Amino acid sequence: MRILHERALPDLAGNIKCGNSLIGPDFFNGRQLSLLDDDERYRINVFDWRDRKHGFGSILATGGFDAVIGNPPYGAFADEHQVKYYRKNFESATGSCDSFAIFVDQGSLLLRPGGIFGMILQSAFVSSPSMSRLREVMISRFRPLAFASLPYDVFAAYVDTVIVVAERLRKNQSLRDLRRAIVSLSAFPPRFQVRTATDFLAVEKTADAAKWVRGARNEFLVTLSDAERRVVDKLNGIGAKFSDIADIQRGVTPFQTLATRPPGAWQAFNGTVRRYKLRIGRAAFIRYDDSLAEYKPPRYFTGPRLLLRELVSRQFRLQAVYVDGKFVTNKSMQSLLVVVSDYNPLYLLGLLNSRLLSWYFLAVHSVARRDDFPKIVLKQSRELPFRTIAFNSRKDKARHDRMVELVEAMLSLNENLSAARTPHDKTVIERQISATDRQIDHLVYDLYGLTDEEIAVVDEAVR
Hints:
Layout: H1 38-44, H2 57-61, E1 65-70, H3 80-89, H4 99-110, E2 111-122, H5 132-141, E3 142-149, E4 161-168, E5 182-187, H6 198-202, E6 204-208, H7 226-236, H8 242-245, E7 246-250, E8 266-267, E9 272-274, E10 277-279, E11 285-286, E12 305-309, E13 319-323, E14 333-338, H9 345-352, H10 355-364, H11 378-382, H12 394-419, H13 423-447, H14 452-461
Parallel strand pairs: 1-2, 3-5
Antiparallel strand pairs: 2-4, 3-4, 5-6, 7-14, 8-11, 9-10, 12-13, 12-14
Helix pairs in contact: 4-5, 9-12, 12-13
C-alpha cells in the first residue's frame, strides 16, 4: 500500500512559473514606482529569469535550457515604455518591434550552446525586408535544422506560418562561419490540407542553409532545394534589375471615383488586369492633382507603359499588360515606364508574364505563397532580375525582336478571344494562346541561360 502514498509523477511546482517572458525587473529602473498603479504593475508582471528562487537562475547559471519551444503572439500590444525597453535589450527590436521577433531573440538567449529551439512563426519573417534584423539575429546564433512552411488555413487565425527548428551555436560562432548547414524543408503547395504527420515527409527536401547567407542577401529560402536555389542564384547573378531599365511606381491614394466627370477630372481605371488582358470596366473619374495624399506625376498615367497588378493570380502568376491610354490607377497597380529607349516595352512584358519570373518571385518571397491575397510589392518588382540585351549583337537583338513579335501575337490573340462568338472559335484561339505562351517561356529560358536540368526544376515546381 506504500505506493499509494508515493508521488506517481515528480513535483513540477518548481518548473512552472508565471511572469512576463520578455520584461525583467530592470524595466522599472529610473521610473518612480509611486507613479505606477497596481493595475500597471500587474499588467507588466516582470519576470527575472536569473532569480534562483522565483526564476530559473540555477539553469541559466549552468549555461541555459536544453530546449525552448513556443508559439509566440504576433503583433501583441506594447506601450511606449515596453517598446523602449525592447529596443534597449533585444537586437531584433527594430521597426514595429513585433512581439514574435522579440520572443525569438529571448528564446535564443535562454538556450545553452547546442540547445534546441522550436517555434511557430509568421512566415513573412524569412524574406520580408522589415524582418532583416531578426534574420541577422538568427544567423548570428542558430544553425537551422528544419523549416516547415504550413498551409494558410492550418490555424483558425488564417496567418501564414512556418515551424522553425534550430540549434543554438556557441558564443562568437554564426551560420556564416559554417561550411555546411544541411536543413530539412517541408514546403506544402498552395491550398494543401495537412491531415497526418506523414504529409510532412511527402514534401520534404533538403538544402544547405549556409549558402543562403553568402553575399549581401540574407533571405531564408525555406521552400527551395539546393537545385532550386542554384537557379535563383543564376537569376540573381544576371547582373541587372527591372529598375535599371524601367521607372516603376504604383498609383495614387486616395482613389475616390466619381460617376460623372467634373471639370479638371481624369479618367480613373476601374477595371482589371490579367496576363496580356485589359478590362477597362465602367466609366469612372477622379479628381487628380497634387492635393492627393500619395500623388504621382502624370507620366505614370499617360503614354506607352506596362501595368503590373500587385495581386498575384490564382495560378500564382504575375499579371501584366501593355497600355497607352490616359487614365489614373490606384495603388493596387504598378506602372512601368521604359527609360532605356533601346528596349521595346513588349520585351519587358514578355519577361514579366513568363513562367520563369513568376517562379522566381514565388521562390524568393514567402508572401507570394499566401493563399489569401498574395501580392508583389513595389520593392520586389524593382528587384526582379532583368535580362539585358546587347543590341550590337545580331543574335541578342534577334531575341529581343522575337520576344516583341510573340508578345504582339499574345495581345492580339487575347483581344480575338474576347470577341470570339462560338465555342469552337474560342477553343482554337485558346490553343494558339497556349502555344504562343510556351514559345515565350522557352525564349525566356534561353535568354536567362537555363540548362535543360534547370528548366526541368522550374517546370516541375509550377505544374
